[in-house]
Write a structure and sequence with these properties.
Strand content: 5-15%
Number of helices: 9
Largest sheet: 7 strands, mixed
Mean pLDDT: 96
Low-confidence stretches: none
Strand order of the largest sheet: 1-7-6-5-4-2-3
Shape: globular
Helix content: 40-55%
Distance between the termini: 35 Å
Length: about 270
């Protein structure tokens, strides 16, 4: 927001600005997605209230995507909730699972909502270095063991904003082992999983056997389909955390505009 103010002031003064801020797409969404939205707009029911947890067709499309991409089975009814972008989902999950005195472990530096989502709802944030080597797990174990009260969850984000670090499946296997041992949830932000350059698709933590017992993962159509402004994301995985988020959302919203959800399903399918 501060950078946006500076940018607006510079433009108003006639300066030429090259924006390295928000990761906005510079290409259009796929044509078949636009066509599907246009078609849906003509349905008389399109402007009615939607569902806060997302229409079934979109949740089903997300489950099919996870099966194709990661060979992970998800139940559209129990394991998936549609969010108004992954950012809203992360913030409302923080609200859904935080009680007074709770703490969460967040690598530093991080995407802002990973930290501020918990700060806003009154939780304590314990910072550990944002790395991918053995020092990450040393710091994680130390943070858990030294906390006055066992932390609720640890947040991870790979491919990472802002560091661009990536991890392999072995990292997630070790993460699941550590968090299962201590009884700590994992919150994974996988928004950048379709942006890679070496031919090796980034993995999902939910590929680890038993990960769904303790982990949820956020994905988004923003980066993958040039649909950033459409505000469609997903929280997938542990049914207890998914249900907690769905319950909070049922108080707060009626979901994204129906044609947008239909378009997102077309993109995923």
């Amino acid at each position: 927001a501060e950078v946006t103010k500076m940018k607006a002031a510079a433009r108003a003064a006639g300066r030429d600005i090259i924006d390295f801020g928000m990761g906005n797409p510079d290409s259009k969404p796929p044509k078949h997605v636009i066509d599907k939205v246009t078609q849906t707009l003509n349905d008389p029911k399109a402007s009615r209230y939607s569902l806060s947890r997302g229409i079934y067709g979109l949740r089903k499309a997300q489950a099919a995507y996870y099966q194709r991409r990661f060979s992970v089975d998800l139940d559209p009814d129990r394991d998936i909730v549609v969010t108004i972008g992954s950012k809203e989902g992360l913030a409302n999950l923080a609200q859904a699972i935080t009680s007074p005195g709770d703490s969460f472990i967040v690598p530093d530096p991080s995407y802002p909502i990973h930290m501020w989502g918990f700060v806003i709802v009154g939780a304590e944030v314990i910072s550990i270095p944002n790395t991918t080597g053995p020092e990450f797990f040393t710091a994680l174990k130390k943070a858990i063991e030294s906390a006055p009260k066992k932390p609720v969850a640890v947040v991870v984000n790979f491919p990472c904003n802002p560091t661009a670090f990536t991890v392999d499946l072995a990292f997630y296997e070790q993460l699941v082992d550590v968090c299962r041992h201590y009884g700590v949830y994992i919150i994974s932000d996988l928004a950048y999983c379709e942006i890679y350059f070496d031919g090796t698709p980034p993995p999902s933590v939910l590929q680890v056997k038993g990960a769904k017992d303790i982990a949820v993962e956020f994905t988004s159509v923003s980066k993958s389909y040039s649909m950033a402004g459409w505000r469609i994301g997903f929280c997938c995985g542990n049914p207890t955390l998914v249900a907690a988020l769905a319950k909070i959302k049922s108080y707060l919203d009626y979901g994204t505009f129906l044609p947008v959800q239909v378009g997102a399903a077309a993109a995923l399918n």
